[in-house]
Design brief:
Blueprint lengths: L2 H4 L1 H13 L4 H7 L3 H4 L1 E4 L2 E4 L7 H13 L2 H9 L24 E2 L2 E2 H20 L13 E5 L6 H9 L9 E5 L4 H9 L6 E6 L6 H16 L7 H4 E5 L2 H7 L6 E3 L16 H7 L1 H20 L6 H15 L4 E6 L7 H13 L17 E3 L11 H6 L5 E9 L7 H18 L3 H10 L4 H11 L7 E8 L2 H22 L10 H14 L10 H12 L2
Parallel strand pairs: 5-6, 5-7, 7-8, 8-9, 10-11, 10-12, 12-13
Antiparallel strand pairs: 1-2, 2-13, 3-4
Helix pairs in contact: 2-5, 8-13, 8-16, 13-14, 14-21, 15-21, 16-21, 19-20
Bound molecules: 6-O-phosphono-beta-D-fructofuranose.
The site of 6-O-phosphono-beta-D-fructofuranose (F6P) has 14 residues, from loops.
């Protein structure tokens, strides 16, 4: 048993869970009419309601005691001070420096000066593309931006450019290509003109197989369709920490936007990785995005823990994962433009906290991380909500929605939000046998039919959800929301005593793929793997 699961704060929470689990959420609401006021928080335009979670005042007190026991305050200070808390890679974790407006140092160096310099470089470039002084090889203005990256070098730009579509400048279209499947690049290029297309090759390491393969194919397409070697400079820029590899690839380092190893890939949209975002929405909105994140950073760094949104969001997750043993967390934005938000959080949360050993290298004996998935409402309602309402799996869900919309089509938005509120209420309350019986009896059904239908029409309820409402999905609010989840992940990693900032787990598959790629070209049956892998490879080869 680990020291964490034997610690006083953990044991107190375990004992408390057995008591509170006997009180359904319905009962908690019936007992206390002030529940919403007690268990919701506001910061800026953001409302965080965790009153539909199985908590009472004791739960909050005990969760805060756990945070204190685990030294959360101290770890926050260490992160903000630029300490190398990503110890397996010997790096600080300083994404907050990317949006700071006060100096932040690491290794005695003011990293915020560097950030400012690159932001200026981004600003100048965006200006040149927008005012059309940067033109393609034939003298035409750039109309299409293709970001080629994957993981953190893709999901942030995709998610944010989609979410901020109402803020896009009209003269540019932004496309993002990530998948190694040639279909992604080919279908994107189909409608593009090389003379008016700018490629951003985004890769922190500039060694990622998917990105470099797509980048090479994009360059080939460019050269085969009217471009030439001299024109590559005007049509290909890079975003990376690896100047040498950028230059080896054939992009002039003068056309490179730098970032630094202290920016984790999944925390990098605020850096030059955000170049497609800045191009799509303009620098003013990009700076608002940063300002929103900065406001959340300041809140996280200074607010008392019981009023601190990321801390409480993180602790509620711990409560669910470690004490109610849920393994599944739905992210359900009631906003179509946030359709990539669940995918973005998948990387942020699962790559950060999917770890099986503590900072000391000991195996954990408690769950870390959770399976994140989701879809925008109300589409999900007509797909997987059945299982949420009447299935047997345990889960929790975050519902997110703006109170004002960008597309006020007759009654669409009130109807959408009515569904949000109804779903969280239905999941919490369920429908008892008694309620179903009286409803069916009122429909004049026979007593036999009522009894027959009864079990199928009841809802167990007691499903915990968290609701996050915000005024409008503007750049600053989106920045706040993303930073909220970034810091939530930090809080949970500290409680679990893991390193949230490395990702060694993605390496094994990459290594094996390298070996198998070579085998696919061989002219003899493959026998060196397990029977299944051999069989799959040989079947594939037989079809070529
Ligand atoms: O999936 C592993 C990973 O290293 C992510 O952490 C990262 O965001 C992604 O690959 C892309 O890496 P890079 O930006 O170096 O190409």
């Amino acid at each position: 048993m680990s020291t964490l699961t034997r610690s006083p704060a953990w044991l107190a929470l375990s004992a408390h869970q057995t008591k509170i689990a006997k009180r359904p959420l319905r009962a908690l609401f019936n007992e206390d009419s002030q529940r919403f006021d007690k268990f919701s928080l506001q910061f800026g335009d953001l409302l965080f309601d965790y009153s539909k979670q199985p908590v009472d005042a004791t739960t909050v007190r005990l969760l805060l005691a756990l945070a204190e026991q685990q030294g959360l305050a101290d770890w926050i200070t260490r992160m903000a001070a630029g300490e190398k808390i990503n110890f397996t890679e010997n790096r600080p974790v300083l994404h907050i420096a990317l949006r700071a407006n006060t100096p932040i140092f690491s290794d005695g160096k003011e990293v915020t000066q560097e950030v400012k310099r690159v932001l200026q470089q981004i600003e100048q470039f965006v200006e040149k593309i927008h005012n059309q002084s940067h033109r393609g090889y034939s003298g035409l203005p750039i109309t299409d931006i293709v970001n080629i990256g994957i993981g953190g070098s893709d999901l942030g730009p995709v998610m944010v450019t989609e979410a901020l579509r109402p803020y896009h400048v009209p003269q540019l279209r932004v496309h993002c290509v990530s998948n190694l499947d040639g279909a992604h690049l080919s279908t994107t290029l189909q409608s593009l003109n090389p003379a008016t297309t700018l490629f951003i090759i985004a890769s922190k390491t500039f060694t990622t197989q998917e990105t470099l393969t797509n980048a090479r194919s994009a360059r080939r397409w460019f050269l085969e369709n009217g471009g030439n070697e001299q024109a590559v400079a005007a049509h290909f820029v890079a975003v990376s920490t690896n100047r040498e590899a950028v230059s080896q690839f054939g992009i002039n380092p003068d056309n490179m936007f730098e970032f630094w190893d202290w920016v984790g890939g999944r925390y990098s949209l605020w850096s030059a990785i955000g170049l497609p975002i800045a191009l799509a929405v303009g620098m003013e909105h990009f700076r608002s995005l940063l300002a929103g994140a900065r406001a959340m950073d300041n809140h996280f760094l200074t607010a008392p823990f019981e009023q601190n949104l990321p801390v409480m969001l993180g602790l509620i997750g711990i409560w669910q994962i470690n004490f109610f043993h849920i393994t599944s967390q739905a992210i359900l934005p009631y906003d179509q433009s946030m359709h990539r938000f669940p995918a973005y959080l998948q990387q942020l949360e699962m790559e950060s906290n999917g770890k099986h050993v503590t900072r000391n290298g000991e195996a954990v004996d408690y769950s870390t991380g959770v399976i994140i998935w989701g879809e925008p409402g109300t589409n999900g309602q007509h797909a997987f909500y059945q299982l949420l309402h009447q299935g047997t799996q345990q889960f929790t869900a975050d519902f997110l929605a703006p109170c004002q919309c960008h597309h006020p089509l007759s009654r669409h938005h009130p109807m959408l939000l009515a569904n949000f509120f109804a779903q969280t209420e239905a999941l919490m309350r369920g429908k008892t046998e008694q309620e179903v019986r009286s409803e069916l009896t009122n429909q004049n059904l026979s007593a036999d039919l009522v009894e027959y239908l009864l079990p199928h029409r009841t809802f167990p309820g007691n499903h915990a959800t968290t609701s996050i409402l915000f005024k409008k999905l503007d750049p600053a609010t989106l920045g706040m929301l993303i930073a909220l989840y970034e810091h939530k992940v930090f809080v949970q990693g500290i409680i679990w005593e893991i390193n949230s900032f490395d990702q060694w787990g993605v390496e094994l598959g990459k290594q094996l793929a390298g070996r198998i790629l070579a085998e696919l070209a061989l002219d003899k049956p493959i026998t060196g793997h397990d029977a299944s892998t051999n069989g799959l490879i040989n079947f594939y080869r037989a079809q070529q």
